[in-house]
Amino acid sequence: MDAQDEERPLIHRLPLPQDEISEFTSDGTVDISNLPARKQSTGNWTACFFILGAEFAECVAFFAISKNLVTYLTGVLHESNVDAATTVSTWIGTAFFTPLIGAFLADTFWGRYWTIVIFISVYVIGMMILTGSALLPVMMGLSYNRSIHRLTAYLGLYLVALGNGGIKPCVCALGADQFDAADPVERVTKGSFFNWYYFSVNIGSLLSATVVVWVQDNVGWGLGFAIPTVLMLSGLVVFVAGRKVYRYQRVEGRSPLTRVSQVLVAAVRNYNLVLPEDSSALHQLPSPAEGNHCKIQHTSQFRFLDKAAIVAPSSSDGEKGPTSPWRLCTVSQVEELKMVLRMFPVWVSMVLFFAVTAQMSSTFIEQGHTMDNHVGPFTVPPASLAIFDIISVMFCIPIYDRVLVPMVRRATGKERGLSQLQRLGVGLALSVVGIVYAALVEGRRLSLTHAAPDRQPSMSIMWQAPAFAVLGAGEVFAAIGILEFFYDQSPEGMKSLGTALAQLAVAVGNYFNSSVLAAVAAVTTRNGKPGWIPDDLNKGHLDYFFWLMAVLGVVNLLHFLHCSIRYRSSNNNTYS
Question: Is the dihedral of CA 230, 235, 238, 240 positive or negative?
Answer without folding.
Answer: negative
